[in-house]
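Task: encode each sequence below as structure tokens.

Item 1
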Amino acid sequence: MDFGGAAAGPAPDFMSWYMDIPVVSRMYLTGAFLATAACSVDIVTPYTLYFNWDLIFQHGQVWRLVTSYLFFGVFSIDFLFHMYFLSRYSRLLEEGDFRGRTANFVYMLLFGVMAMTLLAKYTDSPFLGSALTFMMSYVWGRRNPDTRMSFLGFFTFHAPYLPWVMLGFSLLLGNYVMNDLIGIAAGHVYYFAEYVYPVLAEVRGYPLKRIMEPPMVLHWLCGTAHPEEQVRFH
């Protein structure tokens, strides 16, 4: 399956490749690998990681808000498939639209987690990592409308159709697609709020110009606080 661009050159060694991944994408990829490794050697079980609204909000098992986005299944071809898409589209976003804007990238992920957590309450979705991957691929595709991609060499399409092609492929394989739909929905809401609404607000003179500006504390934590941003209000 080919959802990429130009052919790669000589393969770098693993540590060079790993350290070249931007910090937030690298942390997420590492967390996903460690969660799967911990389950593989029976340090923890998936039953302690999955999303369950009642266990989180009535029994205080708040770690499930994080672990349900980290576990992608046991080591398998399907796991490698998920890791490829996670590392690729998270990295493309962090190095592209969010270059130098780490706080905004983290804020996008936090928004996605919050939105998908609320939606997951009403669906049978125990693990939500693939939904977050779909959200990132949706946002990346909408931000790169002229990028051409191919699917299995049979047909080509433009990047905005990527999540829908992936959704169709999941349907053909008989996979559960509710996570994919949740990710697409969250990605669409974020794209509108971050990229469409500010233009509408400027044209129509709305007093609220931006609704996806990270709080200053997040800028400080991510090292992206600048004097000119400290006077930017919602």
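Item 2
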Amino acid sequence: MAAPNHVQISIPADQNPPNIINHTHDEEEFDYSQRAQWLRAAVLGANDGLVSIASLMMGVGAVKGDAMAMILTGFAGLFAGACSMAIGEFVSVYSQLDIEVEQMKREKRSMAEINNNGVVSEENAKESKEKLPNPSQAALASALAFSSGAIVPLLAAGFISEYKVRIGVVVAATTLALAAFGGIGAVLGRSGVVRSCGRVVVGGWMAMAMTFGLTMLLGSSGLKM
């Protein structure tokens, strides 16, 4: 009687399942995107404040050489812009919160039906609440980001009485800040730094020049301030 044949299949011990490696890689990418998302939003908010207030101050400076009028206008724009950004962000995030809370309630009911006891574990409930957005924090972060950019031209113009020098310093300080914000945004977005900086700087120059020119045109047409 012939002996039965035995077939042995060797499995390498050091071979890791590919799905585990991909899962770890995806987690690292997800963590990076989550960190970069709010940083980039902060940079964009600061850039908005910088361009808005610098352009507003340039517009007033086109028809009024008074330093106090220019600075007060800048501060008024800072307060209005920060409040507008905060309120808009609060309303937007609160709407998102309402949607996610309703979704969480539906998920709890589904889980309770699956468990057949009508009770959802406290651990799952706590984890779900921790993931919910915070409207107050989002509003505060948006206002602070806008204000951090808006304060740059105000500080640049605050200590200079000479009209032409003040305008030049505001433009120079705004340009440097725009280049810095553009570089930070490029690093976070993994894009070309030089191209990003150039795009942001040119956009800021266009906003300031258009505001200055159009306001001067209105002033020269007989509209008195």
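Check on item 2: The radius of gyration is 28 Å. Helices lie at 18-63, 67-115, 122-130, 135-157, 163-189, 193-220.
End of task.
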